[in-house]
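User: Show me a protein chain along with its predicted structure.
Assistant: Here is one chain, sequence first, then structure tokens.
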Amino acid sequence: MKNKISLLSRILLVIAAVALVYSVFVPIWQIDLDAPQYPEGLVLKIHADKLAGNVDIINGLNHYIGMKTLHTEDFIEFKVLKYIIFFFAALSLFTAILGNKKILNSLLSLFILFGIVAMVDFWKWEYDYGHNLDPHAAIIVPGMAYQPPLIGFKQLLNFGAYSIPDIGGWLFIGSGFLMLIAVIFEWRKSVKLKKSGTTLALAILMISIVVTSCGQSGPEKINLNKDNCDNCNMPISDIRFGCELVTEKGRVYKFDDLSCMIGYSAENKDKLNNALYYVCDYLTPHELVQTNQLTFIEGEAVNSPMGGNIASFLNADSATAYKTIWNATITSWQNMNQ
């Protein structure tokens, strides 16, 4: 009985097997493209056995910059990937039935190895399509490559490209975590740890790390006189009034004045759901702070770059002092961003 796994681990493996089977029938990955001329965006959906989404439109755009057109039949991965996923689903179910700890460990090791190989293959595919360009293309930018990000955001000319797991990808990742939890649980039993909550704590910690790394990112450093305002296109020249918004997918927009960020936000409400807003503290201008932590002072004497005439302060006492100096008024982010 020493090598037998518990009923809990068997249940986790059965759930993992079901999730893997379901992942074959939904998109595994998606690449979103965002540009001014496509306000609703374009999306490339990658399934286990095909490409979907706005493939024809993306191929038309790729033609102009010399990238190869995308066709499902050109990828050998689409011929074998779903069968590999079915194999792991069957192996997970087989392990649950046999209940052997060594097979469980082998399952997790193979699954992790396959995940690494799959991501390397995906990166190589992106590299090939982004770098091997037609020298006779209509639009040629010297030294420019169009490789999408493996995960996260990347600016490609006037397109913002977001690469993130889709439903099937999250199911695949979740299956791996269920296998990992089963392995940790069985390991905990074998070494007879005294603290019964160790397995759960480890699992929560690992899941938190992954969710945090894949979630919304924070602000970026503003490069003075190099970064342009995403609203008025003027160089950001006074760091005391610099500000940024970060979309849910991690794209960063930079502004030279709070009025520019407010104006941009008002014009693009539909695509800025759950965005985070950051403004430089007037007294420590290289520190970007979320708007809900700041006190705002508004008045003509503030004299900000684009006439918004609003300064922000992390320290409320400092805000009160400058309010008196400038004969200004205190306002709030909610009032300004209605």
